[in-house]
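tool_call predict_complex ligand=dioxothiomolybdenum(VI) ion
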Amino acid sequence: MAKKTKLKLGFPGHFKQVAVSLPAGDPVPWEFDADLKVVGKRVPRVDGPDKVSGKARYTFDLRLPGMLHAAVLRCPHPHARLRRIDTSKAKAHPEVRAVLVMEEKEYRFAGAEVAAVAATTLAAARQALGLIEVQYEKLPFVTDPDLARRPGAPKVRTEGNVEVSLETRRGSVETAFREADAVVELTIRTPVALHTCLEGHGSLARWEGDLLTVWDSTQAVFDVRDSLARALKHPPENVRIIKDHAGGGFGSKLQMWSQTPIAARLAKLAGAPVRLLLSRHEDFLCTGNRHSSVQTLKLGASRDGTFKAISWRAYGTGGIEGGAETSRAVDGLYRFPNLEVHEENVYTHAGPACPMRAPGHVQGVVALEAAIDTLSEKLGLDPLEVRLKNDPSEIRKAELSVGAERIGWSRRGPSGSNPGARKRGLGVAGTTWDGSGLPGPEVEVSIGAGGEVTATCGTQDIGTGTRTILAQVVAEELGISAAEVTVRLGDSYFPYSILSGGSLTAASVTPAARAAAAKARASLLRFASKELGDKLEDLECSDHQIRVRGSNRSLSWEHMAQDTPSGRLSFKAERQGNFAGFEPAAAGCQFAEVEVDTDTGEVRVVKVVAVHDSGRILNPLLWESQVNGGVIQGISFALLEQRVIDHRYGTVLNADMETYKVLGALEVPEIEIIPFPVAAGFNNTQVIGIGEPAIIPTAAAVANAVANALGVRIGELPITPDRVLGALESHAKGRR
Ligand code: MOS
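tool_result ok
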């Protein structure tokens, strides 16, 4: 039976009693100001020493005895059919142990898999690829989404290249635009960007009879298990996926990519373990990207800045698959009584898109926040005031005030009013993201015969610190330190968990960990009460014992564990459904100050102030690390990143770390992070995810700051020097 009660939710000055229905048997949420000993503390990563000493093993570090190395032959053409393939010379290579030709005989992007080879060395595998004789029939292709939209363009799929991905209508935008005092319209373009994980994509597959084990660079061991089982027509219970440590994913490791089944099939053919690690070049071509966008927004408001209507028409390309959508944040960030959305996904002969850190939101917020600044300018209003007027979130409004103070918003002058060649500007943008968690994950907490505490869950730590927060939550409940909890994760043979995406992990697994640890504690107390003959309320759980308050009598966990047939006490709990929260999602906002050199066109971000809430902050160290990462990746998207395709040949020109530019250490500005703790509700630890919210507003705030500095809007990301100079030039011409 669910328990109906009231919780004090909100934040200082804005607390309210909210009726909630707590899941049966779930621990009561920790209060906002609960006196916690481990949770909320700056506990360093429990796997930090392993990572810095090289002891932590990533997929790329793994080796098995007798292991073979694989390489993949890829189609060099954006669209082609296989005419003929002859692998006999490759098979005859003395070091080659297996050759595989893909079933697919039509290739729809340059980089698609044609064949694969496993050999005793990587050099031999690559050499053997050169021995495969292939004849392609080249087919018409289109990689430019603007051309792909035209009638008569080469078809990427038989149904046509354009697909409506989202269509929404509310109220009457036509009437509202007519009645508005000011209406602006603008078009913003964003490029295809790449995830650029430190750790690329790789798989190591081993068969032992019918049991297939794959060490895979993934954010989702259970999903890869199911996808691989389907691909191989093998029972999922005989497929085990392991991911011990990960060097980031950002969404590019949520789904199974082809290297996993290729490694598994080669291993089967060769009768030996096979490791297939993609090179950075392959990674950039084949393992997903952030889709591009061309967004035309029309925004209308009354004289005082109250939004009346928005029209959002957008298209973008996700290549051969992955989709394109940008308007998802429109309803969470600001109130729009009348709204019309029409979004299209354009198929092109290019590598597939997939989720990338706050998919759609990052692109959409750039356009939305640009429209708001443009409209504010037209109305002669302070863009911050306009946002405050239309923001539905009490949390974000408070955050905007704090952030404005920290960046010194009152210094912001009218756009383009800065004299001199180096012009400074300020910009702001908001975020909304629902990372309040999902039910389903299970955590097992056990106490061994030596009193050791272990928490086990099939979730994965993609570099965010999941291991550490699980240790903290279990430690808190049992009255020990985080270092005294061993966390085992990243294995589909462990209790079930969801994928590590959508910023869902912290809010989905820590409540299960807490529930399991609470069960353990309750059971230890009951056991001790029976054994010692003391009342439950006189007992306390700490220091690996149950102690009788005010006496020196106690019973050790060790003793209790040894007293069971297995020598081990173990307790499992499942994450229950969400209960009511204070607001529907996490809020947050960022302010950016930039300096633009109008002689060179160079943009330098001087400072970013990031104010974020995510319910309870379980570990400020890890939390700040997420915000830093989001801001850095956001600036990188605003100023540098873009996958470049030569549309004449349909091939990517910069699929390497030298020419695909990402922000370097010297370009990282001062980042001031302001945590905004909230009693958020939703789950028993009251945590919400921060991974994705942290990147959403950055590029938008930077772009707005550049527009404020110059008095000219650069309508296309990345904001490169040539675009800055070009925009300044056409602006000057327009004025003459
Ligand atoms: Mo995230 S794009 O769901 O890893």
